[in-house]
Request: fold
Amino acid sequence: MTPLLATVSVVLAQIGDSSTQWVYVAAGYGIVVIGIAVYAVLVIRRGRKLSRQLDPEDRRWMS
Amino acid sequence: MTTPTEPRRSSIRPSDVVTDATSAPTPSAAAPSVRATSGSRTTRVLGIVLVPALALWAYLALLGSPADVNQGEVVRLLYVHVPIVVIAYAACVLSAVASAVWLWKRTQWWDLVAASAAEIATVMVAATLVVGSIYGKPTWGVFWTWDARLTATAMLMLLLLGYLAVRGIPASVEVRGRRSAIVAMLFIPNIVIVNQSVVWWRSLHQDPTLFRLSLSPSIEGLMLFTLVYSFAVGLLFFVWLLIHRFRVAYLQDQVDAVGLDLALEERREQGWDDGWAPGGAPS
Reply:
């Protein structure tokens, strides 16, 4: 194997390892960020829905 | 605290309610300006601060910080894994402390703080387990193993689910608060076990990285800064979310109280129509 071919194969192997690792990173961040964002949105939407069922004086601490 | 037959609304004193520095007006004066949301000036300011803070966190975690010599790019998962663990710890401790104060003071404010923090802790511990599993596969070769810390964290998750289940059992405010406060007391010893498991037993997890007896962290430079910055942003997000969640819990109790008022009123009217009057004397 020529030195050039050996270098190319090493670089390709590193790129392969790196891209595999990025899949895990993307999966981890994607699941957590989307999951927590969905939870936060649900909390806020529930707050709006409940607020509409009450008279303004019953949610008086909100300004 | 109220008896089961009293509307829960009456148990909330003005001093128990979360108040912004700019608020605390009288009910009638506040009525026109109160919006139908769980937001306030405080949460809006926090939200505005959080947007660029989260953007910087994402940049540092995914691009700005270097890859690790041994772990490669996978180390970036720690910048989301560790902060959500810290949020989960903080939420569990807050829930336990608020429950203890509730058992002492018996004010609804503390009960709602405990419940809100516990629900957030449940979400964060679930996220911790998911990210931890994803981190474990390329690092240890498995998604899950019965390691001491993983097992203790799974137990914490079950405890939190149990807490939420106990709160879901129909009961008076007093009984609900007492039951859930007792369960929340167990959060603290469980967290101590989770935290110290890497010291007490042989574990796949590494020893403490930041909070070591030698006071010298085992990471440095931009990686250390990114990790500490992740804690700060995570805790800021926790405060923002906790305020919203607390207000939702308060609103839910208010709606329940109004519903109870209406049901009692309806029942009284029915009773009087049937020839029954309060005090047992026929009308």
Observations:
- The radius of gyration of chain A is 26 Å.
- The first helix of chain A runs from residue 3 to 52.
- Chain A has one helix and no strands.
- The interface with chain B takes residues 17-18, 20-22, 24-25, 27-29, 31-33, 35-36, 39-40, 43-44, 46-48, 50-63 of chain A (CB under 8 Å).
